[in-house]
Amino acid sequence: MTDVLTQPRPIRLKGRSFLALALTPELPVADWLVRLDDLAARSAGFFLRRPVVLDIDGLDIDRQELRELVEQLSSRNVRVMGIEGARTSQLGPDMPPAMTDGRPAADFEAPAESQKTEKETVDPVEAEAPAAPLQQPVTAAPSLIVSRTVRSGQSIFFPEGDVTIVGSVGSGAEVVAGGSIHVYGALRGRAMAGSTGNAEARIFCRKLEAELIAIDGFYKTAEDMEPELRGKAGQIWLEGETIKAAILG
Amino acid sequence: MGKVIVVTSGKGGVGKTTSSAALGAALAQNGEKVVVVDFDVGLRNLDLVMGAERRVVYDLVNVIQGEAKLTQALIRDKRVETLYLLPASQTRDKDNLTPEGVEKVIAALKSAFDWVICDSPAGIERGATLAMRHADVAIVVTNPEVSSVRDSDRIIGLLDSKTLKAENGERIEKHLLLTRYDANRAERGDMLKVDDVLEILSIPLLGIIPESMDVLRASNVGAPVTLADGRSAPALAYFEATRRLKGEDLPVTIPGEKRSFLGKIFGRKAA
């Protein structure tokens, strides 16, 4: 324990993305709340324990009205974790924080009327649990293929999954991927794999001359890399908290 | 319709202006109508290299701002009559270049000349991006050293994203012109090898211009190196580059390779 305390270790700053349910209120708010109540009535607890983001982009309401809307939602057990598309004038320190750069994901399955009645007849307790859990459609992990050289100063950012580059990554260029990074050419710039907290991610390249490599927040600069790997085809992975590298076949 | 060429590099001092003047003069010597446009507003040099500094009345900024007609600003070369210069302003700064103004000037030049050569300023700001904006062909001038190569890589990235051609989904033709190549330093290994530069930048090689006193001498007398001494080593390299630019398939010789070969023979004899 003392060993750990005496060793100064940098704090790791990691990004992570979560799936939140985005609600888009419409005017007049009272009518929209009625429809929301209707939806909630069909499945009690649909919003329970589910992170909810309020998307008010283009909605013409002021700070006071927004505050009331958040209170209305919270009285219905809908806990708003953040507000998207808000102007600074609409937000206050007592309100959920502003959220930006949201990316669309698969739609949530809304609880259907028939399902609920069926379930209630079979087992009334079931209705207490979140009905119609998030449907996970069977989709392959997303990946991005870049079929050109990434030049100095350019940046490829793909937190959703793997990045494959058919070409080289120039000195001063960077590739950030949520999954693994594959470079079918020379890797001379920076490569950061598993940036959203994936310790299993790896980096592969035809020619390792990287300025910096990182996996899941752990990084290594060119200076710390084994000189015998330089210029060779290689793969880089994470073992515990150590970055490992080896020559590829 | 003429071809618009941008001579660019990112890094300063690698030989953009020298190359613009030399290539422009070489093209014009074949009887083609050429205009060389100085985009380095505020730090103009092309007029000096082309020996026209005492004849500048109006400049690019005057034309863009409607203070002068294009024909008033163009300066005809005294040695080659199909070679023209459109000088930059030394007193204004690059903010005076507007995208619309540049577009108009380039369009007018394109219809009157066979070749429009845009000498880009160093850097990646307004002046450089406007110089490359309307280009059909880019000549990336690079010295065989790491900082120049990395800056060129950055410029190639910009050429592929910020030019009109790239925005229309077309590919801009790019050529590498390796300048200030020093055969002695290459032999000693304290300079990047030609193959290494080509591997990093991966664009076709237009030519290798040897480092030479002839370049300095030519700019001191205010003549493009291809006009000052057409038989000097850099001039010959520029002439070859010009032929490749026009589509001829010529093998590129690396300067000094022949000499080092002879050097080996002499070395042996001496031993």
TrEMBL record, chain B:
Family: Belongs to the ParA family. MinD subfamily.
Source organism superkingdom: Bacteria
Binding site for ATP: 11-18
Name assigned to this protein: Septum site-determining protein MinD
Domain CobQ/CobB/MinD/ParA nucleotide binding: 5-225
Recorded name of the encoding gene: minD
Native source species: Shinella sumterensis
UniProt function note: ATPase required for the correct placement of the division site. Cell division inhibitors MinC and MinD act in concert to form an inhibitor capable of blocking formation of the polar Z ring septums. Rapidly oscillates between the poles of the cell to destabilize FtsZ filaments that have formed before they mature into polar Z rings.
Record keywords: ATP-binding, Cell cycle, Cell division, Nucleotide-binding, Plasmid, Septation
